[in-house]
Amino acid sequence: MKIPYGGDYNPEQWPKEVWDDDHRLFDEAHIDTLTVGVFTWGLTQPGPDVYDFSVLDAIIERATASGRRICLATGTGAHPAWMARAYPSVTRTDFEGRKHRFGQRHNSCPSSPDFRRFSAEVAGRIAHRYAGHPAIVAWHVGNEYGGACYCDLCAAGFRDWLRSRYGSLSALNDAWYTTFWSHTFTGWDEIEPPSALTEHWRGPDHTAFQGITLDYLRFMSDAMLTNFRDEKAAIRRSDPDTPVTTNFMGLYRPIDYHRWAADLDLVSWDNYPPDDRSAARMALAHDLMRGLKGGQPFWLMEQTPSVTACRDVNPLKRPGVMRLWSWQAVAHGADAVLFFQMRAGRGASEKYHGAVIGHAGRSDTRVFREVAALGAELAVLGPMTLGARTPARVALLFDWDSWWALEISDGPSRLVRYLDVVIAYHRALWQLGADLDVIPVTAPLDGYDVVVAPALHMVKNGLADRLAAVASGGGTVVATFLSGRVDENDNAFLSDVPGPLAALLGVRVDEQDAREESYVNPVTMNGTTFESRLLFELVLPRGAEVVGTYGADFYAGTAAVTRNTYGDGHAWYVGAGLSPEGVTHVIREVLARHGLLGPCADLPDVETAVRVTPDGERLLFVLNHGTSPVDLPDACAGTDLLSGHLVRVLGPNGVALYRDPARTPSTGGGTPARR
Amino acid sequence: MKIPYGGDYNPEQWPKEVWDDDHRLFDEAHIDTLTVGVFTWGLTQPGPDVYDFSVLDAIIERATASGRRICLATGTGAHPAWMARAYPSVTRTDFEGRKHRFGQRHNSCPSSPDFRRFSAEVAGRIAHRYAGHPAIVAWHVGNEYGGACYCDLCAAGFRDWLRSRYGSLSALNDAWYTTFWSHTFTGWDEIEPPSALTEHWRGPDHTAFQGITLDYLRFMSDAMLTNFRDEKAAIRRSDPDTPVTTNFMGLYRPIDYHRWAADLDLVSWDNYPPDDRSAARMALAHDLMRGLKGGQPFWLMEQTPSVTACRDVNPLKRPGVMRLWSWQAVAHGADAVLFFQMRAGRGASEKYHGAVIGHAGRSDTRVFREVAALGAELAVLGPMTLGARTPARVALLFDWDSWWALEISDGPSRLVRYLDVVIAYHRALWQLGADLDVIPVTAPLDGYDVVVAPALHMVKNGLADRLAAVASGGGTVVATFLSGRVDENDNAFLSDVPGPLAALLGVRVDEQDAREESYVNPVTMNGTTFESRLLFELVLPRGAEVVGTYGADFYAGTAAVTRNTYGDGHAWYVGAGLSPEGVTHVIREVLARHGLLGPCADLPDVETAVRVTPDGERLLFVLNHGTSPVDLPDACAGTDLLSGHLVRVLGPNGVALYRDPARTPSTGGGTPARR
Amino acid sequence: MKIPYGGDYNPEQWPKEVWDDDHRLFDEAHIDTLTVGVFTWGLTQPGPDVYDFSVLDAIIERATASGRRICLATGTGAHPAWMARAYPSVTRTDFEGRKHRFGQRHNSCPSSPDFRRFSAEVAGRIAHRYAGHPAIVAWHVGNEYGGACYCDLCAAGFRDWLRSRYGSLSALNDAWYTTFWSHTFTGWDEIEPPSALTEHWRGPDHTAFQGITLDYLRFMSDAMLTNFRDEKAAIRRSDPDTPVTTNFMGLYRPIDYHRWAADLDLVSWDNYPPDDRSAARMALAHDLMRGLKGGQPFWLMEQTPSVTACRDVNPLKRPGVMRLWSWQAVAHGADAVLFFQMRAGRGASEKYHGAVIGHAGRSDTRVFREVAALGAELAVLGPMTLGARTPARVALLFDWDSWWALEISDGPSRLVRYLDVVIAYHRALWQLGADLDVIPVTAPLDGYDVVVAPALHMVKNGLADRLAAVASGGGTVVATFLSGRVDENDNAFLSDVPGPLAALLGVRVDEQDAREESYVNPVTMNGTTFESRLLFELVLPRGAEVVGTYGADFYAGTAAVTRNTYGDGHAWYVGAGLSPEGVTHVIREVLARHGLLGPCADLPDVETAVRVTPDGERLLFVLNHGTSPVDLPDACAGTDLLSGHLVRVLGPNGVALYRDPARTPSTGGGTPARR
Fold first, then answer.
1. Contact C491 A39 (CB under 8 A)
2. Which of A649, A584, C387, A179 is nearest to B345 (CA)?
3. Domain A5-146+241-381 maps to which CATH number in 3.30.470.20, 2.30.30.240, 3.40.50.150, 3.20.20.80?
4. Is C617 among the residues known to form the active site?
5. Which of residues 140-199 of C touch A (CB under 8 A)?
6. Which residues of chain B make contact with A97, given a CB cutoff of 8 A?
7. Across the interface, do B352 and A412 touch by the CB < 8 Å criterion?
8. Residue range C592-649, pLDDT digits in tens
9. Is the pTM of the predicted complex or chain greater than 0.95?
10. How many angstroms separate the CA atoms of A363 and A357, rounded?
11. In degrees rounded to 5, what are phi and psi of residue A185?
């Protein structure tokens, strides 16, 4: 047993003589796991009643012959051309109301009975054929579920979903606040999907009725989940045990992965960060993925070994970066390291996408050499990290409903984006070295010393009470502007802002001022002044202590940041859009109180992460995302398990892995608090 | 009698127990007038043959019980969901050719016979039910008419409108210049609405045929006017007297308010300026609204007490700004000061829009306190300003046809926007303190000393002669680049530019040069040099005196600004896109000649405005839009009617109101001219 | 015989009394040639079975009476309104899938049988009526062919075109690489035009399947060529000899003019450069047009005498610029100088477009005076330049397939635009004074010393061998980044980059790095450092000498520019996006080697161009595009044929034309090489 290493492999695109070259090179690179069949629907089902598994058979046979394991896809990420022609219901209707015809991928209407029937059928047949094959280690359903459809079938599905959610039109009218703008519905069939033809203008985020749009987002996420369930059920008829997954996309807005997580046996995801300054962002995404199933390790299903192709500009991953990011994934809970893709396609839109093997089939390329080196390293490591868990005492709340609600809101500011706020708070936690879980708002909070809830716009289902319990028990809660504003239907609370959180936070927000990006209001905390931007809430302390005050405008001198003592703990409220430095200032105080500052908290480019193995061994990962060598503090120096060397200085893109039972769970400054 | 104070009130969105809270707070804030029922169509007509006035009855009863007056809406600003479902003709087809389904508001096709029948019927029933109710002081038809429809019904309506306008296809072909690009129409049914599917590209302003697009703009404005007339006629069957209005939107391009004005008994409008540097722009809009019905006072139907919600960024109105802007409205002719809205909605797209009463129902908010304070002030003022008129000796011409023609023109510059030019000239007049009327090109001009006609692209119906009469009688006319270019069909005059204005202005324009925003050509006038941008006409004096010359390019040294002596008066021509300072330089000379410089002409942030009450009393408003206190000149100091104090210094956002029969109509510099 | 002078003339837009004015002014301006009837379809065919040539008759009669020659158009650039109404197949369906209705121009579906029948019929009737008329010197078919259609008829046409290209679905599936994303086609009718509804997102350049989109571009170009052929064939039935042309648009992407060239008897084009810094770009376009038919002179069919109208900003052509650019056209091979348009239209979208005669009909305008002066100059020149050829020893390859393939590619960079690369290399050649041909990749290369092939993304049909032959014979080949990447189906070569060019260039490209515009990597060549941007290939020399090296990033010190000795010649490879200065540095070395630096190579604003007349006389054009007078080198001074004066200093916008058999073909620095 070791970390599976390999990735997407599409030999159906090549003559068979190439396959042997592939496997020779795979051996050279210690590649042991192949994801097969992701877009083979047209190949395996060339007509409505015709199935042909000969190519899949050959691929699997050849791979097995070389001892490789297989993650086998159902191939339904794109429907075949004949299906779009003969069964037009399978194509989508877009936000603009345009019925699409055959093309692209991820192109199926989730509500199409034809698509549902055909996709379940092909998944079932594949499972029936290959179930029990010893090489198969996982099932891969569909591919990167996402997008949306607005066809009449989806409209009908939406109405059914609403009937089930609300029971009556009267309840729906209340939830959607339809007395506004004469929107009272008197029949279910009057309800339209919210689109450019109905409630929207300027695109998907601008809607006249947030309640309708919010429910459509939920419905569409559920409709695609139904597609996943269709296929998984078909697989389970032949194979009751092998884990079934689909590849998620990390910080992806259209699908509420928390609503999906229970249906997956194994979370896997594709890591394509926007740029090479994304170290913290990737850590957040890893933690979010790990948090989907209560901390269970996940698979890194895809990453590019070198470049992407779909961006306007596709820079190279610099030498060492692919290795660094692969180890980062492991540090955050990945139990597999896989690439897209094994060999570069010749044609179409991914022909310039990075691949382990290029068009010329060489092994003397920089990329292949780096892939092979990492393969060797993983082989040496063996099973050590498999199944290890992250011992987090900090939780970051992540909530698709708040994400959606905040970003489809009219007012106060389109410039405040949910992810920006989450990323800002996560980055501070990450930089200061706190091991943390990213969890849904429904998760138990009692295991955490610190709970950070950025831009928690929607508060529902007793969350306020659970947060209060964290503080009253001695922990610390951190909340920000635009929190506690709406209930689960996106209706404003009829009480002082921040609604159900007001008592915990000890403040009342009287108004909020929104300004253009270029405007700065300085906020002073403990004698230091930080910039704040975009949003400025006018916070009236109602029990809380003022920690930071505004420096400008008519509310100069009033509270921008507060801390309320609540029970044995603290509840912070950050009413201003603080700069990263300002956020870090707040978070540093919070972590220090609980002794949770990491050993490299003062080395901004150095990431540390801990995993505890199933037999209780503590592993410390140290990663240098910077461009200069770093002198490590004693707590982070030692004998690196990867190199076997004693490491005191970590070079650029450097990685070190230590096993040290002596290291204490928290080695940071500050005095450990309760628990 | 006093200025009505209050605004949009939607208690149908709330449980009845809230209504008593509302009225208690209304009393506290001196709110005496409520606009009711603006979006209640779905409520009052829950089905094609069902009417239910119980909620409206209760609202009116409760309001009346507290002695409040009511502006009662017909509620047709959004049609009900059942109507869109059962009578699809009521929804619009957009510029892209997409048939819309139910959603948003202002969503009805103006040509739909179903919409016309239903809207007239509901308006008639409401009028029949409530006519004669003593609380009702005005009828509010529809809401913010606007937008456009491109459906087949509108196409048919357009053809009828064209038949009526042109009589024959031959006349239409001439007017539209259809020999160009093989466009000769040989049958009425060949004519299509100009849209993205026919004559347009890159959006509504880019058309292959200006004549077609111009006529569609006129038709669409007329079609919506027909909708207004339908409802007004239905109201008049029950109530012959109470004024009927609809809320206009100030500087709103799609509707030619001059074509509508005669049909309204009372002009009202909604003031949502783009930002807090809009003092001059709001003054222009007020004056335009007042000018719709020959100077008759208007109602400020809506303004936000604090924030908007629909903008990307929604900043607060700073303390004092709401009061300042309310008094500015009164200074320019408002006989009512109303807000949107009385209580903040819980859900949908306006839940974060400012309201007198917030979600928590408090009176101890900054906003409520400011509203209540203004209410008290208005109560003290009483009837003093009601019915007062503005004694303007300056007219600014405003012409929707020129606006449309200029902005749909191909060439010379898309960067020259009609409103920018109008605003630039108005701002100079405003800053220099001239009381002015903003009037249509059809209005009599003989009452004015000065007529300013910015970007008068289209000249029609003897306007050139009427302008010439102003000058020959001793007055001053100011015209600018891109004037006198086209006739009423947007066909170029077959004579020297500026066409019918050439004799009056004493110039011939040989060519015009257009340049990017970043290019500056300096223009020197009377020894001072000003920047000019965007458009540079090559002006050949043909009798006119050269006042300003270009400083750069091959036309350096040639005329940019001229003044022609015409009869006893002057006619200025400004051929260059002068900077604000340059425009002010020209306008200052013009006003000085007629002794029309205001008393605060040298205080750029201080606005003055005069109203003369029905009994001849002269009221002077002084408003400080700046952020610093200002020492007022003697002519603007005295006992403020609002505070009762002697005012010599006016603070930021300060307002003073004086009654002083001794003040002369013009107290500015310069020697008074004839009249 | 002399250069035809005149242009588009639309007297059908005017009452006949104006026509005499026109001809009087034409005489004054030495205008001898009129393009007539370009948009007269609605006039000549007012109904499906009705033809009326009375107006055309009168126009031609009047023109002939004044001795003018006529370029007679078929008028099919826009279909009549009745046709769109009665035969809806003639209108286009756009990329978004929207069926258009009547409007604009260039509006016909190329696959519509109705359009094809009607257009051929009207062309045939016009030819039948006017063939043999002595005034007619050319036939002008359609107008500025372009755009695209995506209707069902075009879909059917596309499938036919594909059947003919590929023979079988199996070959098509191979070519399009359809195993990718489950795209295998099992029936021809499954194939859809690539559009926003099928393979595209974010617009026409973003496609999931490059092969499909590339073929649709080829098909659409061919479909419109069929339209041209329809009309030409109809003309040829009555007139076997008079040249038939259509007006091209220079650097116009949607139509592959190389695929069209053989069908035209005479190339003509419309020159509307984007701005007044386009001297080099216009030279490129002229050379491209001249290269369409092997160097045969072309007609400048349209240029504006002063301003355009369709741009956002339409600046004037400064004094002298129209003359300068007209002579530039002649210098590059124009045998006609024509304007759009003779008299300004009154209405619609070109009423502000420049014209020889303005709305007021004056001759005392700057524009008319300049037009008349040039007319006089051309009259004096007489036949001297007619039929002259450019003696180029340098070839620049221009390839629509590479243009399309590069710009629809996903990866490596959307910022690298084909035309930008071509323009950069052409500009260097132009500035250094090399007479050059712009030729298709199918053209013979053996007449050239230097072949420059910028961004030759696609290499096909033995081109690599022909380029190698140039080098092996002693010549120089210059290639750049992103060359030799794909075959004719846009499938990557299964060999080292740059594919078939690798042996010639002596390099292997291991990877390419793409970066944002703002990033600069310095490249040092021969001790001088130049900026490079956007794309950076990691070039491994495999025989080539390293000429330039990167200065930054992990590939600092590695090869950016190389030169391979190949046979007796050189092959350069430029792997980085060099700045203009860097490109010029490379090109200067190349030209110097062959003694091809022009006489004004060190005067950046001065253009030189040589034409050799049919009787072997050598004419040298010298043009000063700068704003300062220039001292000419001896080789460029002499007696100017236009002015008759000895010219040693050339003023801004100045033109000189010399006849001097003594001048050697190459007067630049460097030692002449072989040939």
1. no
2. A179
3. 3.20.20.80
4. no
5. 176-187, 189-192, 194, 196-199
6. 98
7. yes
8. 999 999 999 999 999 999 999 999 999 999 999 999 999 999 999 899 999 999 999 9
9. yes
10. 7
11. -90, 130
